[in-house]
Design a protein that fits this description.
alpha/beta, five-stranded mixed β-sheet
């Protein structure tokens, strides 16, 4: 009797995304909820401790268990911490840049994604190709509210059934990707320049058209 061949199990590649804020977590959860056809298993992770060194260690740890790991960093927090350091201490931006160099040279399955100043700048890209420097996230949020007056940085607003943040903005997603790609690349000697690299995630998981 001919033995029956088992069909191979179709296992989705697993990717972890390390973020340091709740807004990114809610946004990525809504991406998962609305883009069920993507061929990867996304697991957003918020570290219990948010120091740069601890985030870096967590990213390295995750890279051992996941096909790919994304480290999404809001640069306004890093730059703000850099302004507060006492003379003689290393600035947070210098520490981050060192971590970024090590990752890019030694860890091929880790991708660093920078939002300057924060996630709201990526959301703003859905409406305008703005390369303006925002002093802080509040300024970027105020600009975003010109397009979404009811915008709130709350879980209720981000995850509302049938009207969540990702679903609301999805008709403009390709515009956001193109606007983000058109911005100048991150420059370590000019870290204050507004930019978002969220398009890297969407390119990799196949949501680009």
């Amino acid at each position: 009797m001919r033995s029956k061949r088992k069909n191979p199990i179709n296992i989705k590649p697993k990717i972890a995304i390390l973020i340091d804020g709740e807004t990114e977590f809610w946004y990525l959860q809504m991406l998962k909820r609305n883009e069920r056809q993507i061929k990867v298993d996304i697991k957003p992770e918020i570290p219990q401790k948010k120091k740069l060194s601890e985030q870096y260690s967590k990213v390295i740890e995750l890279s051992k268990s996941y096909n790919k790991v994304y480290w999404i960093i809001d640069l306004d927090v890093v730059l703000s911490e850099s302004l507060q350091v006492k003379k003689g201490n290393r600035k947070a931006i210098d520490i981050f840049l060192e971590y970024k160099r090590v990752i890019e040279s030694k860890f091929k399955n880790i991708v660093v994604i920078i939002n300057q100043p924060c996630l709201e700048f990526w959301l703003l890209m859905h409406f305008e190709p703005n390369a303006k420097h925002f002093t802080n996230c509040e300024d970027a949020t105020n600009q975003l509210k010109k397009h979404i007056p009811a915008y709130e940085k709350t879980e209720k607003y981000f995850t509302k059934q049938n009207s969540d943040i990702y679903l609301r903005l999805s008709p403009f997603l390709i515009t956001a990707i193109n606007n983000a790609k058109a911005l100048p690349s991150f420059q370590s000697d000019n870290p204050n320049k507004g930019l978002t690299e969220m398009y890297k995630l969407f390119d990799d998981i196949g949501i680009t058209e």
